[in-house]
Write a structure and sequence with these properties.
By secondary structure, this protein is mainly alpha-helical. It has a domain of 33 residues. The chain has two helices and no strands. Helix 1 packs across helix 2. The longest helix is centred in the first third of the chain and has 33 residues. The protein starts with 10 loop residues before the first helix and ends in an 8-residue tail after the last helix.
Length: 86
C-alpha cells in the first residue's frame, strides 16, 4: 500500500478548492456590482455637470457604502454564515 502524503490534497480536494475559490470570486464581484449600482443610483445626480464627484456626492457614497457593508454583514451573521449574503 502506497503512503498517502497528508500535505498534498487529493485531486478531488483540489477541484473542490478551486471551485470554492471561483464561487467566492463570483460572489465578491456580484456584491461589488450591487453595492456600486445601489450607491451610484442613490448618490450621483443624473445631470452630469462636472467630470468629478462633488463633496456631497462623495460624502453620500462614503456613507452609503459603509451602511451597505454594515447591513450586509449583519444579515450574514443573522443567517449564521461567516460571510454576507448575496
Amino acid at each position: 500500500m502506497a503512503a498517502n502524503n497528508n500535505n498534498m490534497p487529493a485531486a478531488m480536494d483540489k477541484e473542490q478548492i478551486f471551485g470554492m475559490a471561483e464561487m467566492e470570486m463570483q460572489y465578491r464581484v456580484e456584491l461589488f456590482n450591487k453595492l456600486t449600482h445601489t450607491c451610484f443610483a442613490k448618490c450621483v445626480e443624473n445631470k452630469y455637470k462636472d467630470s468629478e464627484l462633488n463633496m456631497g456626492e462623495t460624502s453620500c457614497i462614503d456613507r452609503c457604502v459603509a451602511k451597505y457593508w454594515q447591513v450586509t454583514n449583519l444579515v450574514g451573521q443573522l443567517l449564521g454564515s461567516g460571510r454576507p449574503p448575496m
